[in-house]
């Protein structure tokens, strides 16, 4: 089968022929239909410092996909040939304290699909049945392919009650855009989102943000005034991993404000902890999705009319992966999807 592979410890990826993966008794073999490009994939392609520490070549990359079940192992129940599925990309041990308590998203032994084991940028992928999400209701193939990052957005956005709240999102990348759509759909009064890319800020307006603020020319304090806020934002969703964004968010939260932080900084940075203490601000770190409560919430949100179509701005045949990756790395658009049937 054809697969997109990190063949050696150097920048770049190659579309090459590799053996089709074999499914065990508890596994599901899936024909891949669509895949989404993630920031993790960009790191692996660039072979930066993180990738050099996290990845061993050769490796089939990718962890965002939608596909059709073509076979199931003898021990698998509840999944049928022909089902449209997506996959949870965090494979957990099932034996640690958190796994046994049903908190699988907190497993310390998590292995990432397309990072610690062969991934889904291929014609076929194998997953344990426990990591397969069956779409019981109709869903667009492209949207189904981005359930993994959509789950990051949902997990982050729904960490705190949103009804009637004023929400600040720093970073209008694809997950920030999805979080803005979720926050507005979930009943936030005002949703403000910041970035320095006008193209991405325009996408934010299309998904329902009340204020899309270019912080290269205006401050978050200016945004507060534009929205008529008197005491600051109630809920913050930090999606950028940018130290300045986090500091600005803290400076513009109301007393007792709550921040969910998904953006991953590249290095340590200083925080005004005195403000955190005296303003009694709660900061919660987010990594991945709650298995599978977040997935259930995603499906329900889509059934309830949440529209993620504007977030997908690039569609390419898998054979044109170089163009697809260049688009994803540009920093100007939303999600980029590759079609493995073209």
UniProtKB/TrEMBL annotation:
Q: Which co-factors does it depend on?
A: Zn(2+)
Its annotated pathway? Metabolic intermediate biosynthesis; 2-deoxystreptamine biosynthesis; 2-deoxystreptamine from D-glucose 6-phosphate: step 3/4; Amino-acid degradation; L-threonine degradation via oxydo-reductase pathway; glycine from L-threonine: step 1/2
Site (Important for catalytic activity for the proton relay mechanism but does not participate directly in the coordination of zinc atom) residue list: 148
Q: Which domain of life is it from?
A: Bacteria
Quote the cofactor binding remark: Binds 2 Zn(2+) ions per subunit.
> Which residues are involved in binding Zn(2+) 2?
93, 96, 99, 107
Ranges of residues in domain Alcohol dehydrogenase-like C-terminal: 174-300
Q: Which SUPFAM superfamilies match?
A: GroES-like, NAD(P)-binding Rossmann-fold domains
Catalytic activity of the protein: 2-deoxy-scyllo-inosamine + NAD(+) = 3-amino-2,3-dideoxy-scyllo-inosose + NADH + H(+); 2-deoxy-scyllo-inosamine + NADP(+) = 3-amino-2,3-dideoxy-scyllo-inosose + NADPH + H(+); L-threonine + NAD(+) = (2S)-2-amino-3-oxobutanoate + NADH + H(+)
Q: Give the E.C. number(s).
A: 1.1.1.103
> What is its subcellular localisation?
Cytoplasm
Q: InterPro entries per the record?
A: ADH-like_C, ADH-like_N, ADH_Zn_CS, GroES-like_sf, L-Threonine_3-DHase, NAD(P)-bd_dom_sf, Zn_alcohol_dh
Which residues are named in the active-site annotation?
A: 40 (charge relay system), 43 (charge relay system)
Could you say which residues bind NAD(+) here? 175, 195, 200, 262-264, 286-287
Family affiliation: Belongs to the zinc-containing alcohol dehydrogenase family. DOIA dehydrogenase subfamily.
Its subunit composition reads:
Homotetramer.
Known role: Catalyzes the NAD(+)-dependent oxidation of L-threonine to 2-amino-3-ketobutyrate.
According to UniProt, the name of this protein is L-threonine 3-dehydrogenase
